[in-house]
Design brief:
- By secondary structure, the chain is an alpha+beta fold.
- 41% of the residues lie in helices and 27% in strands.
- It contains 3 helices and 4 strands.
- It has a 4-stranded mixed beta sheet.
- Strand 1, helix 1 and strand 2 form a beta-alpha-beta unit.
- The longest helix has 17 residues.
- The protein is globular and about 30 Å long.
Length: 78
């Protein structure tokens, strides 16, 4: 099962990234668990300086932008 994390304080961009991430995982038929990390200390500890960020299985894959559904599909297939 994929562990997907959206790191951000809950702004509109963070919510959009979460929706796109769920849509991409569902479109690929992947089993996943989505976690939203909103604690600033946890975000900084993960090495993220610009939100929103996307982590896949504990690895930061994107920071500071809202990826499209297709971009996330590419990341998840890699």
């Amino acid at each position: 099962m994929l562990k997907l994390q959206i790191l951000g304080i809950g702004c509109a961009k963070c919510k959009t990234l979460g929706q796109h991430t769920e849509a991409a995982a569902q479109a690929l038929g992947l089993p996943y668990e989505l976690e939203k990390v909103t604690d600033m200390n946890a975000i900084i500890d993960a090495g993220v300086m610009s939100t929103p960020a996307l982590a896949v299985n504990g690895q930061i894959r994107s920071t500071g932008k809202v990826l499209s559904v297709d971009e996330i599909k590419t990341l998840l297939n890699a």
